[in-house]
Structures are given as C-alpha cells and as structure tokens.
C-alpha cells in the first residue's frame, strides 16, 4: 500500500503494491484548500489506512485476491465493515435437512447393496462420487437394516428365555428322580406325614394353615424353610403341600427325610383327593385335552405373530402367558380350596416362587370384613412397571362380553400370597363363576384373555377382595431387574413372579441370595445332583 503526494501538493494518490490500480486519487485545487485542511486529511487517512490494510490482508488470505477492481473489493469488504457474517454454513444445514426430508419420504430401492460398516460407506462414497442425497439414502437403509437385526435378536432372546423358563433344570429333575427312588427303597422316606398322633392338627383351626401347590421339590423346601425360620411361633405352623402324581413320591420322601420340626407338614397328591373327579372339574379336563389350547401353550409361539407391530415388552408378556403351567391342574387348585379342606376356616395360599422373611402370624388376625380374599392390589405403587396393573392389562376389552361386564380401570390384585376366608367363600358362587368364564373363553378361542389363571379369578372374586398392606407381599422379582433391594429386605414375602426364577440360570444374580439362603446345599441329594449355589 503506497501513499503518494504530488510535488505541487495538488493531488493525493493511494495505490497497492501488487499491481492493483489506483484505489483512491484526490485532486486538490490550490485556491480552495488550505494547508491546515490538507494536514487534517492526511492525519485522518493515516488513521484509517491500517484498518484498510488489515481487511485487505484478510480478504487476500481467504482467496479473494483475484479481485481486480475496487468494486469487487468493496463487495467483499462491505459486509465485514457493516458487521455482517457469511450465512453459507446455515444454508448448508438447511440444504442438508431438505435432503433428509426427501430421503425420508422416498422408498428404499429393492435389492440395494449396502456396505457392512460406516467405513465401507465412506470409502464407497469417495470411489463412486456419491452426492449428498445418495449418501443419505444409503445411511438410512443401513440404519433400518440394523434396527431390524436388533429387533430380531431381541425377539430371539425372549424366545430362548421363554424356553429356559419352561424347562426343568437338570439338577431339579435329578433331585426328583433320586428322591422317588429313595421313596421306593427306604421305609423311613415312606413314613406317614404327619405322624398319626398329629393328624387331628390338620383340621384344627387354632393353628396357622398354609397351602402350597407345586411339583418343584426344591422350591417347596425353600417356602417351608423360610416360613419356619421367620416365624415367632413355628409350632403353630401347618403346611398342606399338594403335588401331582409323578412328583408325590419324591416330595413325600424329601419332607420325611428332612423334617422341619416343630412345624407340621402334610404332603398329598391330587390323586388322593376324592373330590377331584372329572365330574367336579370338567373344565380343567377340557383345558388340558383341547387341541387348540394345547397347541397355544405348547406349539410354535412365532407362528402367526406380527412382530413388526409388536414391542419386545408386549411379546415377552404374551410369551409368559403361554407358559404350559397355566393348563396344569396344580395351577387351578386354589379355586377348589373350600372343597379340598372342608374343615378349615382360614388358610394362607402360597405360590412356590416366594420367600417368607417375616412372621406371618398376624395375617390370621386381619379382619377381612366379610370378604373372601385378602390380597395386595397391584394398581398403585412406586414401581410403575410392577404396580400398575388394571383389568385392561389382562382382558381384551374389544370383546363384547368383556366390555359389557368389566371396567378396564378396575384395580387388579395379585396371586402368590393370599388370605382366604373359607367359611365365607362357601357361601358364594365363586367357583361356578370361575367355571363359567373359563368356558366362555374356550368358546371364544381364547380371545377374552391370554394370561393363565389370574384373569378368571379377577372376575370370580369380583366384590370379594379385601386389600391388605403391600408390605406383606412384594412382587416382580422374577422380571423386574431393578427391584429395590432395601424394600425387598423389608417385605414380609417376596415373590419371584415372572420368568427369571431364582433356581434358573436366567434368574437375576443380585436377587437370588434372598432365595438361596434357605437352600440346604450340604444335603446329600442336593450335592449328588450337583445343585450348586449359583
């Protein structure tokens, strides 16, 4: 940059050093300008020139030095002098969004060959000179493919978990076989339970009677052991264990060889109840023998399933509802308690996947106020997944019979630990109502509900429920991995309802110790069957 003043002081010229034409030329008339004015002009220009130089340097560094006119330079420098910024970046973002919207609205071509990784995509883009739209289309196709693979993997995982939950672990199968063999060869394993002098206690209502229906010997031992060890008055406990014919010998042998004195244990098989005949239980025979029902519970669970419109959580619930245990007579026995125990007034019915951690004697002191079933409601609680169950979670309200008779917002309650007033129950038609709705669901090809024995019980016990404090019965340990450990420690009964039973490999490791603490791993049968602490 050069400043040139003519010898006559009549002209002032500003020019560049690199071949630019004159940037500014001022001619001064001698008669119209004083030296004072000229001096001030030079001072002003001396002050402005450094700024002009800096802006010119910036423009040059940005690659605009090809400008060969003052007009061009002005267009470049003008916005900067006025404080404006270049919006090319914003335009680029807007163009990119426009391309994404176009790609999102278009169909992905059939047979498109997708790269296996992002690196391959970038390499392919460079080699083939893809434009932005083609790149976005390829990226969308890759992401959708990945989403499909993740969903398929999740559904496969759920199927495998379902099969694992429905199967019998090798150790438990071994335990049943060995105990059955012991029953046939060891007279002590066949001894009467309870001993003859204690038989009157089985119908004595001053004792606390528990009923447990199961074919799992190890699980039954945990329920009984935990109840006795947690009780303040174990001598008042009477357990009535009901099992099927194939498990009876092994179950009897276990409790004959491993007494839980001072508590009393009775073991009976369903074949030993005179009342359980085909005439009295016609629906259950139909459930077990109906081809469509057996195919539903034992058939291909993926056949006819529209997985594209199903979430993994919904699919998991449907799989749980198709557990074969739901067509087992043992699972329906609780609806016949008044007939199976005609001399008892009140019992506590327990599932085999629970652990008792507190003395349950106060349950017999709870006034049910004329109701039949004392149960924990499952529609309110801090755990929104476990304690958010209403009738709409169990029933198909698009079915006219369901919509007519039930309220979708009615609160559900839980099986697993229930106080039953058998005297009041015998005055109701609960069993007949249960049978009626089971028949209707069979007629509708299981379109009213899918989930086992609880839905018909929700209908049959409608108006007969007395809510009890939730601290008596904590649910969800078989499917809620985020169970609050401190609350589980304080609960009277914890329930591993769900697929992740504590005796299975798929059980939650951090929740299993609540259960394993009541397993006698030093027992010879347990050790010989390699039932090791998981």
UniProtKB/TrEMBL annotation:
GO terms for cellular component: Golgi membrane. GO terms for biological process: cell wall organization; pectin biosynthetic process. The keyword Transmembrane applies. Pathway: Glycan metabolism; pectin biosynthesis. GO terms for molecular function: polygalacturonate 4-alpha-galacturonosyltransferase activity. Keywords: Cell wall biogenesis/degradation, Glycosyltransferase, Golgi apparatus, Membrane, Transferase, Transmembrane, Transmembrane helix. The keyword ATP-binding does not apply. CDD domains: GT8_like_1 (cd06429). It is found in: Golgi apparatus membrane. Its EC number is 2.4.1.-. It is a single-pass type II membrane protein. Pfam families: Glyco_transf_8 (PF01501). The chain crosses the membrane at residues 37-61. Belongs to the glycosyltransferase 8 family. This is Hexosyltransferase.
């Amino acid at each position: 940059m050069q400043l040139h003043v003519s010898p006559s002081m009549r002209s002032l010229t500003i020019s560049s050093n690199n071949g630019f034409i004159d940037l500014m030329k001022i001619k001064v008339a001698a008669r119209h300008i004083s030296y004072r004015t000229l001096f001030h002009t030079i001072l002003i220009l001396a002050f402005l020139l450094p700024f002009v130089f800096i802006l010119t340097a910036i423009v040059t560094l940005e690659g605009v030095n090809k400008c060969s006119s003052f007009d061009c330079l002005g267009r470049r420098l003008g916005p900067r002098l006025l404080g404006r910024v270049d919006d090319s970046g914003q335009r680029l973002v807007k163009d990119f969004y426009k391309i994404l919207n176009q790609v999102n609205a278009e169909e992905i071509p059939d047979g498109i060959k997708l790269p296996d990784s992002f690196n391959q995509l970038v390499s392919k883009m460079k080699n083939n000179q893809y434009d932005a739209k083609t790149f976005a289309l390829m990226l969308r196709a890759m992401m959708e493919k990945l989403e499909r693979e993740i969903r398929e993997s999740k559904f496969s995982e759920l199927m495998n978990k379902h099969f694992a939950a429905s199967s019998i672990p090798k150790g438990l199968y071994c335990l049943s076989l060995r105990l059955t063999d012991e029953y046939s060869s060891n007279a002590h394993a066949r001894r009467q339970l309870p001993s003859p002098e204690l038989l009157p206690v089985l119908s004595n209502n001053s004792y606390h009677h528990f009923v447990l229906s199961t074919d799992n010997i190890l699980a039954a031992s945990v329920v009984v052991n935990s109840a006795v060890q947690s009780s303040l008055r174990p001598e008042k406990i009477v357990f009535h264990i009901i099992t099927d014919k194939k498990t009876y010998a092994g179950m009897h042998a276990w409790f004959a060889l491993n007494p839980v004195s001072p508590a009393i244990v009775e073991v009976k098989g369903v074949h030993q109840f005179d009342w359980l005949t085909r005439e009295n239980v016609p629906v259950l025979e139909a459930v077990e023998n109906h081809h469509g029902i057996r195919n539903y519970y034992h058939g291909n669970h993926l056949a006819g399933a529209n997985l594209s419109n199903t979430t993994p959580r919904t699919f998991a619930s449907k799989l749980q509802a198709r557990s074969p245990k739901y067509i087992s007579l043992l699972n329906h026995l609780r609806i016949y308690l008044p007939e199976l125990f005609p001399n008892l007034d009140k019992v506590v019915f327990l599932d085999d996947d629970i652990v008792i951690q507190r003395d349950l004697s106060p349950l017999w002191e709870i006034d049910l106020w004329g109701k039949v079933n004392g149960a924990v409601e499952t529609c309110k609680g801090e755990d929104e997944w476990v304690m958010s169950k209403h009738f709409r979670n169990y029933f198909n309200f698009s079915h006219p019979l369901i919509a007519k008779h039930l309220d979708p917002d009615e609160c559900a309650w839980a099986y697993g630990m229930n106080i039953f007033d058998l005297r009041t129950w015998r005055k109701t038609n609960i069993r007949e109502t249960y049978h009626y709705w089971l028949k209707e669901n069979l007629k509708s090809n299981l379109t009213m509900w899918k989930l086992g024995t609880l839905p018909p019980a929700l209908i049959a016990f409608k108006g007969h429920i007395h809510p009890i404090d939730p601290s008596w019965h904590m649910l969800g340990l078989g499917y809620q991995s985020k169970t609050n450990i401190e609350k589980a420690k304080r609960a009277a009964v914890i329930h591993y309802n769900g697929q992740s039973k504590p005796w299975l490999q798929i059980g939650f490791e951090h929740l299993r110790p609540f259960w394993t603490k009541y397993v006698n791993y030093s027992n010879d049968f347990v050790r010989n069957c390699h039932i090791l602490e998981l």
